[in-house]
Amino acid sequence: MTVTVIADAVIAGLLLLGGGFALIGSWGLAKLPSLMSRLHGPTKATTLGVGSCLVASVVYFPVHGGVWTAHELLITLFLFITAPISANLIAKAYLHGCHTAPGEQSMMAEGMPDAAENGADWATFGYDDAEEDPLSVPTGAGGKDPSA
Amino acid sequence: MKRLLPHPGLTAMLLLIWMLMLNSFSMGGLLLGAFFAVLIPVYTAAFWPDRPAMRWELPLLRFVLLVIRDIIVANFHVARLILFRRNRDLRPGWLAIPLELHSAEAITLLAGTISLTPGTVSVDISTDGRHLLVHALDVADVNAEIAHIKARYERRLLEIFR
To answer: Does the record carry Metal-binding as a key word (chain A) (predicted)?
Structure first.
């Protein structure tokens, strides 16, 4: 009996924690000033917010007579693989937005560092002029194809 | 042996995920899973020619545990920033991290780690693969933050991929 009570307390705590972090993440999404800052809100909601809800689910089912399932672990794994990719794609779309209007002053790319001293550009911008094979990228010399 | 198991780590991982998906142990399930876990790496090996050598044991496990710990700590830190810091007091900044890692797999793992820890999102890589562009929500000293990321994650990844 006491085991169930303790487990319930743990589950409730984890759910509160997860819900709290999801809430703070959403609040950050609404409150933070710029797109790049806002991107930091959702990464929090997916990692600890969803993570502790899933751990709560792992604890809940065996305690309350269900079967132990491993699916939550897989959900966590797949989330951890996919979350950085969506964040990265949004950030890359943002970088493209910085680059579209060559004439006017870009207010978005404020304070962004140059890629390097050796003339290499960031990969988002490095290939817009040529139809070269993007798969041969990382070893190439700065992405500037001399034949293009 | 090399031809039958071109990528033992991938085989082990496929079998593990298969068994977790099944969610109950049965001999038939194990055999079918082992069948696919052996066949899939054999048939996909040709698509992945320059696999980096990787140490699957202790360093990788320690790295995963460290990242999970950092995710939890950073979550509380960023939550405090969102709740109690006024927008104009935040110091968002871009970091250009010089990379010592070379293989695409290692850089992907580093970028994913940086994105998963709240407060930093990896954005882009330079065309020569030597710098990683990262955006940080609140950074006091850009160079110190770069040194911190390099010492904490990249050094450990260099131990794993060698």
So the answer is: no
* Alpha carbon distance A36, A11 (integer Å): 34
Q: Is A63 exposed, middle or buried (0-12, 13-18, 19+ CB in 10 A)?
A: middle
Q: How many CB atoms lie within 10 A of CB A104?
A: 7
Question: What Å distances lie between residue A44 and A3, A41, A47, B73, B119, CA to CA?
Answer: 31, 6, 5, 11, 8
CATH class given for the domain over B58-160: alpha beta
* CA quadruple B131, B132, B133, B134: dihedral sign: negative
Residue B3: which of B61, B43, B35 has the closest Cα?
A: B43
Which residue of A98, A122, A145 to mutate against B (max B Cβ within 10 Å)? Answer: A122
E strand or H helix at A13, and its extent? helix A2-31
For residue range A79-125, list pLDDT tens digits in order: 888 888 888 888 888 887 766 555 444 444 555 665 555 556 677 66
- CB contact burial B68-84 (16+ within 10 A = b; e otherwise): eebbbebbebbbebbee
Residue-wise pLDDT tens digits, A16-67: 999 998 888 888 888 888 888 888 877 777 778 888 888 888 888 888 877 7
**Strands laid side by side in the B131-136 sheet:** B93-98, B131-136, B120-125
Chain A hits for B128, CB-CB cut-off 8 Å, are 115-116, 118, 120, 138, 140-143
